[in-house]
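Severity: low
Component: inverse-folding endpoint
Summary: output formatting inconsistent between runs
Steps to reproduce: submit the following structure tokens with default settings.
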């Protein structure tokens, strides 16, 4: 079993395998897209689930006590609170360097397969700096 290594900008990705790989596809995340998606999810969650929260809060079931708190807070204030939490999570990831490092999309056995994988990776919203890197044995 061989160990293959990919190095890009001082980052290393390793894999032990019996298969032959020639290239890897790596990418970075886009901060603005990540923030936008997080805020969008909050709005969608509230839009889809507010009635459900209200029904469960009205049931009096202690398992849904947090739902009662949400309803008591009001839809707008709850949305603001959740958006602030979403912003804080994305900002914490930014502070940790999550948007500066590369992530591995996958290993490929041929250049044409790596090019195809790179196109798929580029089409995923939020992936930037998609790069095909040659694999070395280590």
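Observed output (run 2 of 3):
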């Amino acid at each position: 079993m061989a160990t293959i290594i990919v190095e890009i900008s001082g980052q290393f990705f390793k894999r032990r395998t019996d298969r032959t790989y020639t290239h890897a596809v790596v990418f970075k995340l886009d901060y603005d897209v990540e923030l936008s998606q997080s805020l969008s999810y909050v709005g969608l969650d509230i839009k889809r689930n507010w009635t459900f929260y209200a029904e469960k809060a009205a049931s009096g079931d202690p398992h849904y006590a947090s739902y009662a708190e949400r309803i008591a807070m009001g839809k707008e204030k709850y949305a603001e609170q959740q958006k602030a939490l979403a912003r804080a999570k994305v900002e914490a990831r930014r502070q940790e360097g999550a948007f500066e490092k590369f992530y591995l999309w996958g290993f490929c056995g041929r250049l044409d397969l790596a090019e195809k994988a790179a196109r798929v990776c580029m089409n995923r919203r939020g992936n930037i700096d998609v790069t095909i890197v040659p694999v070395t044995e280590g």
